[in-house]
Amino acid sequence: MVPAQWYLLLAAGIFCIGLFGVLTRNDALYFLMSVELMMNAANINFVAFSLYYGDLTGQVFALFVIALAAAEVAIGIGIILVLYRNFGDIDVTVPTEMRW
Q1: Which pTM value belongs to this model?
Q2: pLDDT in tens, 38-90
Q3: Which Pfam families does UniProt cross-reference here (predicted)?
Q4: Are 58 and 14 in contact (CB under 8 A)?
């Protein structure tokens, strides 16, 4: 059986990669992918602790996070399409405010 520390190290690494992507990229698609990485790291933690304690609550929370991630992607793609339509680019530093 794999110890829980390995799962936590994996989740920490994935979360750090996602955080690095959020902090360094200007492209909205990279933002979405980086946030998805951070949510997946949280899912790994939920499932690892669920396995460690023998309780299914962490797996249920992971399913809710997956549903939240799907909704976040749907809304994020809509925002990206509006950015591209209004400004011709998906760089998040170009628009300073969204107008009607």
Answers
A1: 0.86
A2: 999 999 999 999 999 999 999 999 999 999 999 999 999 998 998 899 888 88
A3: Oxidored_q2
A4: no
Domain positions in the chain are: 4-87
Assign 3-class secondary structure to the chain. CCCHHHHHHHHHHHHHHHHHHHHHCCEHHHHHHHHHHHHHHHHHHHHHHHHHHCCCHHHHHHHHHHHHHHHHHHHHHHHHHHHHHHHCCCECCCCCCCCC
Identify the CATH assignment for 4-87 out of 3.40.50.10800, 1.10.10.10, 1.10.287.3510, 3.40.30.10.
1.10.287.3510
Question: The tokens of 88 are what?
Answer: 């011709």
